[in-house]
Recover the amino acids of this structure.
């Protein structure tokens, strides 16, 4: 499935809604171009909504890390929200949860950019414990 990318803004934060697969080839190229465009057009804070992202391969992960690094160098952050179980397992198993802040919902992800707001961070440890129990 081809990667579809929809850009929107909420409270000055750019959100990219990704639908499909982030895999080697066109998809990673389109993803990187969308992030580059968002970083140039707006302040360097970005949220990836992965709710409709079916699959991320190693090239996709590499592209995500490269984009996060570029945004961090520009003084911003790239955060993730609405990961499905498979993609969340991938982030945890590859230890990329040390690079990306993960949030269950968009509101907490947006609020995380504002120090005076309450947020509920995603509990990675509870997620791993639940995996062991299954």
């Amino acid at each position: 499935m081809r990667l579809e990318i929809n850009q929107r803004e909420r409270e000055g934060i750019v959100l990219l809604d990704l639908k499909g697969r982030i895999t080697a080839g066109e998809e990673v190229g389109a993803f990187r171009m969308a992030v580059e465009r968002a970083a140039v057009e707006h302040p360097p804070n970005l949220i990836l909504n992965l709710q409709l992202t079916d699959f991320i391969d190693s090239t996709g992960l590499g592209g995500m890390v490269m984009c996060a690094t570029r945004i961090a160098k520009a003084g911003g952050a790239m955060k993730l929200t609405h990961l499905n179980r498979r993609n969340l397992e991938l982030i945890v198993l590859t230890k990329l949860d040390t690079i990306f802040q993960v949030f269950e919902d968009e509101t907490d992800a947006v609020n995380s950019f504002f120090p005076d707001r309450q947020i509920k961070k995603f509990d990675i440890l509870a997620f791993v414990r639940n995996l062991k129990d299954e």
About this structure: The chain has a mean pLDDT of 90. The longest strand covers residues 45-56. The domain at 4-133 is CATH 3.30.750.24 (Transcription Regulator spoIIAA).
